[in-house]
UniProtKB/TrEMBL annotation:
Belongs to the sodium:neurotransmitter symporter (SNF) (TC 2.A.22) family. It is found in: Membrane. GO terms for cellular component: plasma membrane. This is Transporter. Its main location: membrane. The chain crosses the membrane at residues 73-91, 103-124, 145-172, 236-253, 265-289, 309-330, 350-369, 404-424, 445-470, 476-499, 520-541, 553-575. GO terms for molecular function: metal ion binding; symporter activity. Disulfide bonds join C184-C193. It holds the Pfam family SNF. Na(+) binds at G79, A81, V82, N86, S319, N351, L416, D419, S420. Keywords: Disulfide bond, Membrane, Metal-binding, Sodium, Symport, Transmembrane, Transmembrane helix, Transport. It comes from Seriola dumerili. SUPFAM superfamilies: SNF-like. The keyword Membrane applies.
Length: 600
């Protein structure tokens, strides 16, 4: 008897390489047994055998590291998905679009698109155990979408870290007896500055509050810039805060998930502690109950407005964090048999519940502001940076012990931002070191290179005119391009790799095949939903603006080039793959089409 063992590898293919079907987990070997009978006839028998456990994979590379504990992974995913937008966007959308009635379209899109896409990315990363680009070894022609999401995460890091530096600047400014955004007698104040105590000034469009002037003139110094073509030099105060943020990010990421998994124990849990403390304080304030009632007031007639449904769908797309490659990167460090289905349900549910919970905190204070200054709630309600850097600090400044409350609030913003920024950086780092294997041995240096490069680009956002650069990046870096990326990702998995094969992969990991509902969502519902969102995104596009400032045409062109640079990775890589394969182009094209749709 002659016995030989040979590894079974995945065939290289343009579309979806064939793979052996088996119910066992992990890599396999085929044992070829040649049995010689007495009559001289030889028979061949093959059996699948498990390889001997080793510390290296068949290619001789070191085994992939895994999370120290399961809770490290869960906290990392929750910390990334629960970010500043949960505090400054969802509550305002809910208030503006029918209160409690807004939850109807929000939960509807959550069930048919949000959770299925969230589950898909976690399963994709965990099974293939590589970053956003490497996972597309299952369907190589779609690898370009991996580079798309890596670029998007990199672009977002250019300006997201700046928000954290603002929070850090406010935190340092809060260690004082009197908060600097209370009065109009500071050097940065203009003649238009007016205290809320003068109610007649509230309706005057030329008047601004001390808190708003502190943010725009005291922190950003936007009065020293005439527009995006007049940026000036980086301001040393914000540059120093940005440098501190970059250092925190580096030492959280340089050793991989072993270090980042410990950092999130603080950054992912602290916001919940602070939100609870702020809610307990907020509900005791006069007018707080009126604010919460306005937040939850139900107006089902608003559901007849198509814009309400579009905003609910948009919120789902961006709040869960799909399409940034972060979920793929994080789940790639899971153990192969980890129950990613349960993780997807738990983490996506916690994200949505956090958004809803934060609304009570926000509107308790907005109700208080409305009551204190005797103005309508819509005069103080807003979303975006204006909520957390103008309205909320202004409300905190009126409380006894305001400096203490300000410190607590900005620590929450800092932790909310840090773990989301860590997720975005990890997506870039993991995606690239998995694609370019030689970087594995130099993770510390490569991480340093990424964070320093991000810091240098972010310097444009901390100049006098940095808010204009920030607004441009925020408008173009992850808008239509992220929706496009997730759409191509869903099409690649559902229609080229195949829902059945993807379901087999999940069954191989967790021992349970996804139900018909999940398979229908992956194949039909989610792609249609995403296609609709991409079309709506183009149809409803409006050029960016900051207040009354309109960006010049060249700035909009730069913004579109930024968006197209990430989206173009999909066709460019597909063309590259087709051109580098041996054989005639017509034969390759026919093979691609035949192989793709034979899987349906």
């Amino acid at each position: 008897m002659l016995t030989e063992r040979v590894p079974v590898g995945l065939m290289s293919s343009v579309v979806a390489p064939q793979k052996p079907t088996s119910n066992t987990m992990g890599p396999k070997e085929v044992e070829l047994i040649l049995v010689k009978e007495q009559n001289g006839v030889q028979f061949t028998s093959t059996t699948l055998v498990a390889p001997t456990p080793t510390q290296t994979n068949p290619s001789g590379e070191e085994e992939r590291e895994t999370w120290g504990k399961k809770i490290d992974f869960l906290l990392s995913v929750i910390g990334f998905a629960v970010d500043l937008a949960n505090v400054w966007r969802f509550p305002y959308l809910c208030y503006k679009n029918g209160g409690g009635a807004f939850l109807v379209p929000y939960l509807f899109f959550m069930v048919i698109a949000g959770m299925p896409l969230f589950y898909m990315e976690l399963a994709l990363g965990q099974y293939n155990r590589e970053g956003a680009a490497g996972v597309w070894k299952i369907c190589p022609i779609f690898k370009g979408v991996g580079f798309t999401v890596i670029l998007i995460s990199l672009y977002v890091g250019f300006y997201y870290n700046v928000i954290i530096s603002w929070a850090l600047f406010y935190l340092f400014s809060s260690f004082t007896g009197e908060l600097p955004w209370v009065h109009c007698n500071n050097t940065w104040n203009s003649p238009n500055c007016s205290d809320w105590a003068d109610n007649s000034s509230v309706s005057d469009l030329d008047k601004v509050t001390p808190a708003q002037e502190y943010f725009e003139r005291g922190v950003l110094h936007i009065q020293d810039s005439n527009g995006i073509d007049d940026l000036g030099r980086p301001r040393w105060q914000l540059t120093s805060c940005l440098a501190v943020v970059i250092v925190l990010l580096y030492f959280s990421l340089w050793k991989g998930v072993k270090t980042s998994g410990k950092v999130v124990w603080i950054t992912a849990t602290m916001p919940y502690v602070v939100l609870t403390v702020l809610l307990l304080r907020g509900v005791t304030l006069p007018g707080a109950i009126d604010g919460i009632k306005a937040y939850l007031s139900v107006d089902f007639l608003r559901l007849c407005d198509a814009k309400v449904w579009i905003e609910a769908a948009t919120q789902i797309c961006f709040s869960l964090g799909v399409g940034f490659g972060v979920l793929i990167a994080f789940s790639s460090y899971n153990k192969f048999s980890n129950n990613c289905y349960r993780d997807a349900i738990i983490t996506s549910s916690i994200n949505s519940l956090t958004s809803f919970f934060s609304g009570f905190v926000v509107f308790s204070f907005l109700g208080y502001m409305s009551h204190k200054h005797n103005v309508a709630l819509d005069k103080v309600a807003r979303d975006g940076a204006g909520l957390v850097f103008v309205i909320y600090p202004e409300a905190i400044a009126t409380l006894p012990g305001s400096s203490v409350w300000a410190v607590i609030f900005f620590i929450m913003l800092l932790t909310l931002g840090i773990d989301s920024a860590m997720g975005g950086m990890e997506s870039v780092i993991t995606g690239l070191i998995d694609e370019f294997k030689f970087l594995h041995k130099h993770r510390e240096l490569f991480t340093l290179f990424i964070v320093v490069a991000t810091f240098l680009i972010s310097l444009f956002c901390v100049t006098n005119g940095g808010m204009y650069v920030f607004t441009l990046l925020d408008h173009f870096a992850a808008g239509t391009s992220i929706l496009f990326g997730v759409l191509i990702e869903a099409i690649g998995i559902a229609w080229f790799y195949g829902v059945d094969r993807f379901s087999d992969d999940i069954e191989e990991m967790i021992g349970q095949r996804p139900g018909r509902y999940w398979r229908l969502c992956w194949k039909f519902v989610s792609p249609c939903f995403l296609l609709f969102m991409v079309v709506v995104s183009f149809a409803t596009f409006n050029p960016p603006n900051y207040g009354s400032y309109m960006f010049p045409p060249w700035a909009n062109m730069v913004g579109w080039c930024l968006a197209i640079s990430s989206m173009s990775m999909v066709p460019l890589y597909a063309i590259y793959k087709l051109c580098t394969l041996p054989g005639k182009f017509c034969d390759i094209k026919y093979s691609v089409l035949f192989s793709s749709f034979s899987l349906l």
